[in-house]
Every structure is written in structure tokens, then in C-alpha cells.
Amino acid sequence: MNLIKSFLYIVFGLLIFSSCEDVIVLDLEEADTRLVIEGTIDADAAEAAVRLTLTNSFYDPSANEVVDGALVRLIGPLGDVYPLAQAAGGTYRVADLPITSGEKYTLEVTADDILYTAVAEVPYPVALDSLSQEKINFPFGNQEEE
To answer: How much is the pTM?
Structure first.
């Protein structure tokens, strides 16, 4: 039986390492550069961060260009305005926010005289009620040795 298992492992390994390796290059049209806004609100740390970058070509290996000099504001549920200060690498941050779960916050980003807005609701924390662990012998599951 061990001989059959060994043979199956060898065949399985050969199948995995003999796959096709043709590189497919798609003829993609160039698109206009767009602003990418990535934002997070961290209720535990009482802070918000926004990163602004510009899109680039699909096959361009360089990192995306960061956007500096934008006006970034977070507006709380009661209309309180919190400006985000520019940090390194196109990142804008604000700390010491009074963040409440279930409340909606509005993000306003003004870059190149264009106003972008987004609204997000801070989720409630999820309590972990249980956790389990199980050992599984890959690839054949929990089979005993014969």
C-alpha cells in the first residue's frame, strides 16, 4: 500500500510542476489618470487616515504617484469638522477623534479643485464567542497510516 501511495505522490508532484508557463500580455488601452482614495477610521485608536495616490499603467512596475497638497476633512455626525494633516507619502492623518460605533462620518477630499465625498458608518465591535483548532493531514484528510 505504501508503494501505491508513493507512486501517487510522485505522479501528483509531476502534474503540479509540469503546468503551462506561457506569459499572456494583454493589449490594454491607456486610461486617464484617476485619483485613488484609501481611508480608514480606527475606533480603538481614535484616529483616521487617508492615503491619496494616482493610478498608473497596468504594466508600469513603479509605485503609484502620491498626491500632496490636498484638503482632507472628516465631518462627524454632529457636524464637527476634523481636518487631516498631511504626513509622509501622500497620507493624511488626524488623531484624538471622538469615534462612536454606529455613527456616520463624512470624508471630504478636495484635490485639483474637485471635491470627492464619501459617507461611512463605524461598525459595532464583534465579540468572539468561541475559537477552535483542528489538525488536518493534507492532502488526504485525517486518514490513519496503513
So the answer is: 0.68
Longest CA pairwise span in the chain (Å)? 73
pLDDT of residue 146: 47
75-88 exposure pattern, b = at least 16 Cβ within 10 A, e = fewer: bbeeeeebebebee
Q: Has residue 40 got a pLDDT over 50?
A: yes
- Does residue 14 have a pLDDT over 70? yes
Cell numbers at residue 73, please? 476633512
Q: What is the pLDDT of residues 81-109, one digit of tens each?
A: 999 999 988 899 999 999 888 999 999 99
As beta bridge partners, residue 48 has 41, 94
Phi, psi of 134 (to 5 degrees): -140, 135
